Amino acid sequence: MTVTVRSFAKINLGLCIGAPRPDGFHDLRTVYQTIALHDIIHVKVGRGNGIEILCDDPRVPKDQTNTCHRIAERAMVALKASSRVTITIEKRLPVQGGLGAGSGNAVATLLALELALKKKLPGAERLRIAAEVGSDLPLFLVGGTVLGVGRGEEVYPLPELPSVCCVVATPEIGVSTPKAFADWDAMTAAPKSSAELRSARTDKGARPSADRSKLTLPAPSDRMVQFGRAVSAWLSGQPLSGVPVSKGRGRAETSLLDLVRTGIENDFEQVVFPKYPELCEVKSVLERAGAFYASLSGSGSALYGLFASRTAGQKAAVRLQRDGVPAVVTTTLTRRQYWKKFPVSGF
Fold first, then answer.
1. Spatial separation of the C-alpha atoms in residues 140 and 18, rounded to whole Å
2. Per-residue pLDDT tens for 154-193?
3. Is there a catalytic annotation at residue 136?
4. Of residues 10, 39, 258, 283, which has the active-site annotation?
5. 2-159: CATH number
6. Which of the listed CATH numbers 2.60.120.200, 3.40.50.720, 3.30.70.890, 3.40.50.1170 matches domain 167-335?
């Protein structure tokens, strides 16, 4: 039997990076939001054994390193099943783009595999397996607006945000997430001693800009608390000091605007934009075109802008396309929309 499902993408509404953990990961705080852009996943089960990955995109690994392969292995053990599993990935989302494409593919594979085998794992078991494979897989088992904590794998559904126009720009740049984390660690490392700083000066006596950044960034724990307070204030409907209050509209209409007005940001922009200034320019184009919030998604290189109307979003996409930047107009997905649109065939 073959089951076909949609594998949706996500964006990050703010992403706060904490201190490195003993397990090699970082503590994170983020608000995930699923969007309508997607890949298509076909899962076929038949006689035999083994797992096969098929994909026309040469950038997609087809061996055991593929997240779909890894989650299928674990799922077959948990389901106590023995079959030949063939996973075909129709790639529409960018690879290494910060949209969670590989993670979404894996979760779609897991759920499609259950359907094809006519077996079902408990919800807690699904989440455990997903978290073992990758930090941002569990969010795709929830959908809609999701709070991510821990290393991003501990997820909690948030109140639904209304569906809004979202323009996604996908510059043809591959940003390595491990390298972005390493650059963040280098930038936020403890300040050097006075003697070390003197020896690090250039011949002209100027200190490297990275040292200035280290002296001005708040401590990771303080920043995590600030992010948490911003989200908590939004959830409670209480305005933060200095944050304008939306007036004249119902809570349902203004909830997303209220959230972004808390000032949440993506920390990765501080290390990615200096290395790839063209990405910073794309964000500026989105903002100048009228986006009420624009940001890098994950570690990039995809960026997105949220717009009050589809007309405004289409104009922004056209402007980016004229500059040679691939851009598409889509929408954010509520949890209900996410699960309603998930199946394609084989149900």
1. 23
2. 999 998 888 999 999 999 888 888 899 999 989 888 554 4
3. yes
4. 10
5. 3.30.230.10
6. 3.30.70.890
